[in-house]
Write a structure and sequence with these properties.
- With about 220 residues, the protein is α/β, with parallel strands linked by helices.
- Helix content is about 40%, strand content about 20%.
- Strands 1, 2, 3, 4, 5, 6, 7 and 8 form an eight-stranded mixed beta sheet that branches.
- The protein is globular.
């Protein structure tokens, strides 16, 4: 049963992408767009920004509307169509986006000042992803991730939603385990929490080493 539910959940990124917004709204009590925007205060405006797994494009549109020089990337053709449709409708022009995998980013070294991803799948923990993000980040650049949100309520509906998160693989390992994963890939790791009416939204800020730090460690070795 759990495998079937996970399969159906992952189809929301492809075959049933048209239903993604409705399902996400139901699972978050209408807050999921606000949960994604929790990343924005942690993003730098000094240079280009890459959003990995832009999905239906709500955060990407918000970034553009707030003046970020944002580029989107997603492997799903269906999500790319939703993003393009949203931009044409709301801003009258297509977005800057490419189809591609986080495991092999189609960008030059040091192309971005910041990388953001909200509610990504397991690929975000892959060493290939973390190495690729470090490669395209400028020295000292940041990878900002919104991995999950914890519902505050104890009513039956909130408990049902938390169960759904677990069976679809959306529950997170401990903060210490997460920290070790990112630090082993060369990042400095911080965890923050932003609050909405119904949830505590987790935000990870992972900073790539700058050239001074790298040189100091090399000399010490």
């Amino acid at each position: 049963m759990s495998r079937l539910i996970r399969f159906a959940f992952h189809q929301l990124y492809t075959t049933f992408a048209w239903a993604y917004d409705a399902v996400a709204d139901a699972a978050s009590f209408g807050e999921w767009k606000a949960w994604g925007r929790a990343a924005i205060p942690f993003l730098t405006r000094e240079g280009r920004l890459l959003e990995i797994a832009h999905g239906p494009g709500h955060l990407h549109l918000a970034l553009r509307q707030q003046g970020f020089d944002a580029v989107g990337l997603d492997l799903s053709i269906q999500m790319a169509r939703l993003l393009r449709k949203r931009f044409i409708r709301d801003v009258g022009r297509p977005p800057a986006h490419v189809r591609g995998s986080a495991l092999r980013l189609p960008f030059a070294d040091r192309s971005f000042a910041c990388v953001v991803s909200t509610f990504p799948a397991e690929f975000i923990f892959a060493r290939e992803t973390l190495d690729e993000v470090r490669r395209v980040l400028r020295p000292g650049g940041q990878l900002v991730i919104v991995p999950t949100a914890h519902l505050k309520g104890s009513d039956a509906l909130a408990r049902l939603v938390r169960w759904a998160y677990r069976v679809t693989g959306q529950s997170m390992p401990s903060a210490d385990s997460i920290r070790r994963r990112f630090e082993s890939a060369g990042y400095a790791f911080e965890q923050h929490v932003a609050h909405t009416a119904r949830a505590a939204v987790v935000v990870w800020v992972c900073t790539a080493p700058d050239q001074t730090d790298a040189a100091a460690k090399s000399s010490a070795a």
